[in-house]
Every structure is written in structure tokens, then in C-alpha cells.
Amino acid sequence: MSSEPQRPGSREVHDYTEEYGYHSDQQSLRLRRGPSRVSNQNQPQFDWSSPHEEEDEEGSSGPPRDLRATPLPMALKRAIRQVQQMQVPVVSSRDSWKRKKAKSLRKLKDCGMGFLSFFSLWSKTLQKIGGNFGGGVQSYFLFLRFLVVLNFVSFLLIAGFVLVPSIVFRSVGAALVNSTGQGACMVYDPNPEGLVVFYNYFLDLLSGTGFMEYSYLFYGYYNNTMVEDKNISYNIPLAYLFTAVFYFVFCLICIIARMGTAARVVVATGSSTVGDYSMIVFTSWDYGCLGDRATKLKQKNIHYQLQVDLEEESIKKRAAALTLSQKIVLYSLRVSMCFVSFGLIIAAFYGIFAATEFSQVKSGQGGILGLFFEYLPSIVITAGNFVVPLLCDQIALIERYSPSTTVIVALLRAVFLRLVSLGVLLFTLWRQITCEGAENTGECKLCQYNHLLYPCWETRVGQEMYKLTLFDFLINIAVLVLVEFPRRMVVDNWSNKLAQWVGRQEFVVPGNVLGLVYGQTVVWTGALFCPLLPLINTLKFILLFYFKKITLFHNCRPALKTFRSTTSTFFFLVVLLFGLGLGTVVMIYSLSEIRPSMGCGPFRFFPSMWSIVPTSFNNLSIITQEFLFFIGSQSFSIPLFALSCVVMCYFVALASVYGKSVALLRAQIKLEGRDKQFLVKQIEMLSRRQQILKQTAGASS
């Protein structure tokens, strides 16, 4: 190749790149030492030609370094780009085809990502919420969106394996077991006959009785049929059982996967202010923000994140400055307030227990009074969940925790209240269904459950969960219409000191997250007895999203005390995992211990719901049975357990190595910060000495 004349500015490019250590084999702007017509032939020349030509000459197969990633001044980059645009590169047909292919693939990828983002639920709304109210409030709406998707996918699972086959095969097939059982235990006819007063349909819709009870909404309407044909064979009871089990496994996998994503963020920041500050400064800005509105929202979001870090750091400094006597007073105050909060929670439990027993005794009445007795447990649970958390929030203010710790403590107390209150309701129902655990005495002797009070106890439990879900939704609407909007109108239009002191409400994230966890726990508890409850909860959460969005933008003001969204997001999922655990315990106990109702449901002739599994197993072929026995044997489980232990030990060792590396890097960052502070101090001292010397020299002259 003939030598090129040296262009102006090539020497400056060489000096700058040599200083920062970028050599010719790592950049698209290549430097060459070639023969030149200029007198100074030993100076390296900068090749302004296309980098693809040199790749062919040098045999380099790697992609060229992007000009934007090269550490050069902006003026020099602009000049280089102008020179490159002036030249017409000589490109072979093969390279041209590669370029066109890469460009088309890039466009296809961008179109695909844009198409997927179009179907992403409420992405613009969530960006707007994060910009105006911070990441803490945004984490609530992200959590709500996750639950909407989880419930909808769960409904598709239940509909595909239980609901649709039950509708299709309802008039086809025969009973799985032909046993008749006890005649008194099989009496169950919820379908009313004759004329019904119109308002009774409304009462049935609210209570889940009447026409609602005799539908696919509840357990009792599903048959114990098995379809056997030349082309198809379907076992409705087995599908019902396995779908319920897989539904819980699917929810567990989704929660753990999302917890892993949130945990990576927490580990990356190290739950420290320094790590979080570094992520905010270097990685928080979204360069895809287009327009002034999106830019301002992103700036507000970053402002809220920095505000959280400053508040956390100031509280830590105040806590470190406390004396020993002040710490003793503070910790004794926290312990005493903890006992007070637990006393309130226990009082709420007793009220729920008494209301549930009274409601079950008076449940036979009709009309509005009967509807009140039906909803009495839901009313007491909702009242306790509303009053006790408010008192616990005031107690948390006295305890003087940091904002993030206050959120976690308040959420733990409220979660304990709500989940255990639901457990008290289920315990009261269990006492009445099983005659207080004595299944072979009294009214439970004939059927091993109280068939007189609960001819189809699974449907009755499903009705209670249905009423809790519906009542929780109605309470949210009532609070929005009757409390939040009137409060905002009074505060905005009345200049009284009392109104100004009350002010607009804040969006309390712990209470709202607790409502979501409670509603989802109710769905998990009643999914076995009310298969369409995930669909109802999906519609409820979708409407709740828009209601909360309206009240957030029109009735609420930004919170005075913010909190860290990274730790709160992970903790929300941990609390949700507690709710899944409660629902799993209820499902396992119902499948294995309590006798199914003999007058309804797909398991009416089995001693337990799980009995369908060994019965269906005996009907399998010999080869399939031997394979399943091998999977459950020691010869398969022991090697699998050993392999799992080895893999776990490997990942634990890998995590420990990464943790040590992260700790060393953090220590190096701290040392470099101290070195910089030392250098700054030295520079200040030298500048002061120079000023003193100048002053003395000026005075002497």
C-alpha cells in the first residue's frame, strides 16, 4: 500500500491515545507507523480510512471499537466523524451484505422490543408515578402489576385443565366410583326451585349462595367423572387435584424468581448508602428518555432516591451519637411499645373468633339480616385490619426507627395481624366442620364431618373466601368515594386551620401493600374450594390499580419521609411468601386429613382427596408404575441428593468468592477516597503556603 500524507491533527490524536493506553489493535481509529513523504517519517500516522478495509488487510475478525466508546474529546470526535463521512469507503460486496444484514437485524430487534413494550402493562403510568412520588410508591404499583399477571396466568392454568374439560365432559362419562355411601351424608341441593324474589339474586351475588353456589365458581358443582374413549381419556378429579398442586408450585416459582431479581439489586448495592449512591450516580439515568416530560420525571425519580440516602445517613449518624443511657431508654421504649402492639393484635383475634362463631350459628336466616350475619366475620376482620394498623403506625413513630425500618416493622405487625386473623377464621370453621376435632363423636359420627351444618363444607369455605375478596374490594371503593375524595375537597376549598393541619393524605405504602398480600392470601386459601377465585382477583386488582392511580394523583401529596425501594421490593415478596405458606398449609391439610363431602364435588366417594392418586396409580400400566417406583426409590433419590449437594456447595463457594471480591473492591474504593482526600488537603496546604509566600514577598518589596 502506498503511504498516505500526514493529515493535520494526526500527531495530536497519537499523543492523546498513547497517553491513555489505547493501541492500534483495539480501536477503529488506527495508528500506523508507515513510510511518509513528510520529513518526519518516524511519527505514527492516523488512518482516516474505513476500518473494514484494514480488517481485511490485517486479518482481524473482531468488530471495530465504536467511536462513542473511545475516550477522546468531543471536538476531536466530531472532526474525525466529519472526515470519515467525507470519504467514500471501498467496501466489498460481502462486507456490504454483512452490514445490511446487521442493520436489518438491529431494526428487527428494535421493532420486537417496541412491540413487546407495547404489551407491557402500564409502563408509562409506572414511569410517571416513579417520577412524581418516588421509587417507594412505584414499587407498590410494580408489585400490583406482578400480582395481576400471576393471577391471570393461574386462571388460564385452572381453566385449561379443570374448567373447560368439566364443561365439555359434563354430560359425557361416568362416575369414577359407584359406591353409594350413607344416604344422609349425600343430601345436598343448593339449587332453589320455584319463583325467587328479584332482590334475592343480588343477595346471592354478594354472599355466593343460591344460583352462585350451584355454578362452576365453587367446588360442589364439579363432578367425579372420568371420560374414557378410544382417542381420549380424562380424569376430572385427578386433574382437579394436580392442577391445584401445580398452581401453588407455579406461584412459588414465580415469587422466588422475582425475589432473585430483587435480591441481585440488594446485593449489588450491599444494602449500603455508598453502593446505592454509586448505582444512582453512574447507572440510574435512562438515555432512552425522549422529551421534556420523561426527562423531568426521571430527574424527580433520581432526586427521591438521593433524598432517601441522605435521610438514612442522617438517622444513622444520630443513632451513633447516642449515649449509653439514651440507648437504654430507646430500647426499653421499643420493647414496651412492642408489647402494646401485640396486645392490640390479640384483642383483634378474639373479636374475629367470637364473630365467626356467632355468624355460623345465625347463618340460616334470610333477607338483609341474614346477609349481615353472613358478612359479620368479614366486617370484623376488615375493621380490625383498619384500626389496629393505624394504632401500630402511631406506635412506630414513637419507636423512632429509620424510614425503611419503620416500613418493615409496620408491615410485619400488620402482616401478622392479617394472616393470623385469616387463620383464626379458618380455625373456627375447622372446629365446626370437624366437631372440634372429634370426627367420630356427636354429629360427625356418621359422615366424619358435620353434615347437618355443612352438607358441602368445601363450598362453604369457598364462600367465606369469596365474601372476603368481594368485601375487601367494596371497602376499597367505599374509602375512595366516601373518605379520600371528600377529604381532598375539604382541604382544597376550606381555609380553616383544622383542614390545613389535616392536609392531603399521603400514600401509605405499607398499608396498601398489606392489602395486596392479604387479598392474594385469601385467594390462595380458597383456590382449592373456589377455582375461579384467581379470575375474580385479577379483575379486582386491575380495577384497584386504576382506583389507586386516581387517588394517588388527585388526592395524595408526595410523602414527607421516603424510603428505599430496593429493600422494600424484596421485603414485599418475602411477606407474600408468608401468605403462600398459609395457603399451602390449608391445602395440604384439606387434601390429606379432612373427609371430603359425600354429597358434592369430585372427591365425594373417597376417604380423602389424596386417595385419588393411589387409585389412579393402580390403573396405570406396569412399565409406568415401575418407572414411578424407581423415581421414588433410594437408588434414584440418594444420587440425586448427592448431586444436588455438590452443585449447592459449588454455588455457595462461588458466591463466597464473589462476596470477598466485592468486599475487596469496596475496601479499595474507600482507600482511594481517603487518598483523594489526603491529596486535596495537601494541595490546599501548598496553595496556602504559596499565598503566604507571595504575601510576605509583596510586603518585603
The gist of it:
With 701 residues, the chain is mostly helical. The protein is built from 20 helices and 7 strands. The radius of gyration is 35 Å and the shape is globular.
What is the tally of beta strands? 7
Runs with pLDDT <50, length 5+?
A: 1-63, 177-181
Task: Supply Rg.
Answer: 35 Å
Q: What strand line-up does the widest sheet have?
A: 3-4-5
The major sheet is characterized as: 3 strands, antiparallel
Tell me roughly what share of residues is in helical segments. 55-70%
Distance between the amino and carboxyl termini: 66 Å
Residue fraction in strands: under 5%
Rough outline = globular
Number of helices: 20
| Helix/strand class | mainly alpha
Order of helix and strand elements from N to C terminus: HEEHHHHEHEEHHHHHHHHEHHEHHHH
Mean pLDDT: 76
Transmembrane segments: 142-169, 198-217, 238-259, 331-355, 367-388, 408-430, 468-485, 522-547, 568-589, 636-658
Membrane topology: Multi-pass membrane protein
Family: Belongs to the TMC family.
Domain TMC: 456-565
What would the keywords be for this entry?
three-stranded antiparallel β-sheet, mainly alpha, 701 residues
